[in-house]
From TrEMBL:
It comes from the Bacteria. Belongs to the phosphoglycerate mutase family. BPG-dependent PGAM subfamily. Its EC number is 5.4.2.11. The gene is gpmA. InterPro entries: His_Pase_superF_clade-1 (IPR013078), His_PPase_superfam (IPR029033), PG/BPGM_mutase_AS (IPR001345), Phosphogly_mut1 (IPR005952). It comes from Acidimicrobium ferrooxidans (strain DSM 10331 / JCM 15462 / NBRC 103882 / ICP). It catalyses: (2R)-2-phosphoglycerate = (2R)-3-phosphoglycerate. This is 2,3-bisphosphoglycerate-dependent phosphoglycerate mutase. It holds the Pfam family His_Phos_1. Keywords: Gluconeogenesis, Glycolysis, Isomerase. GO terms for molecular function: phosphoglycerate mutase activity.
Length: 217
């Protein structure tokens, strides 16, 4: 039996500013740093000792992971990273203030973009996609895999192959795997682990810096 520990990154600067973040690479706030350290203390209090670390390729998840390993005195752990664990791409909404966006488009429309399973926000333009593709982290991907927008169902579709191909074999080998990622990518994992339906996963809340632990046979 393996153990899977899921942690959403600590508060980011865009979280604090109430902005749509998505694939925009922003750092943690001081509160986010404290949340990462508290997450490590909770993991230690449960008697858990991660032996593999998995993160997205975004700074806020990576920094959270590094802070947790420092607190756990396990900075030497092997690390795997994948773009497949990135946050949902919010398309043309990325960087916008959520309240201002609601004032412009209406509360119901913004709620639909944020909380539906299969409704995508407006796309970014092709030039924005090409600029993102030029980033070293995504340059190896076919351009078609670099999103211009995503619904939650799209995030789940990209997360699950990585879960089954990489994380599950580690769990079957008895490892304790610590995953530091994002609210929507973690929703995809919890959907499978708790066998949630589409409506249930949409309403699932995953708090910053609060570990979720699963024993996986």
């Amino acid at each position: 039996m393996g153990t899977l520990i899921l942690v959403r990154h600590g508060q980011s600067t865009y979280n604090a500013e109430n902005r749509f973040t998505g694939w925009v690479d922003v750092p943690l706030t001081d509160q986010g740093v404290a949340e990462a350290k508290e997450a490590a203390k909770a993991i230690e209090a449960d008697g858990l000792r991660p032996d593999v670390l998995v993160t997205s390729v975004l700074e806020r998840a990576i920094t959270t992971a590094e802070l947790m390993l420092h607190e756990l005195e396990r900075p030497w752990l092997p690390v795997l990273r994948s773009w497949r664990l990135n946050e949902r791409h919010y398309g043309a909404l990325q960087g916008l203030n959520k309240a201002e966006t609601a004032a412009r488009y209406g509360d119901e429309q913004v709620k639909l973009w944020r909380r539906s399973f299969d409704v995508r926000p407006p796309e970014t333009d092709v030039e924005a996609q090409r600029l993102l593709h030029a980033d070293e982290r995504y340059r190896m991907l076919p351009l078609a895999l670099v999103p211009r927008t995503e619904a939650l169902c799209d995030v789940i579709d990209r997360v699950l192959p990585y879960y089954y191909d990489v994380i599950v074999p580690l769990l079957w080998d008895g490892h304790t795997v610590l995953v530091s990622a994002h609210g929507n990518s973690l929703r995809g994992l919890v959907k499978v682990l708790r066998d949630l339906d589409d409506d249930e996963v949409v309403s699932l809340e995953i708090a910053n810096g609060e570990p979720l632990v699963f024993r996986v046979p």
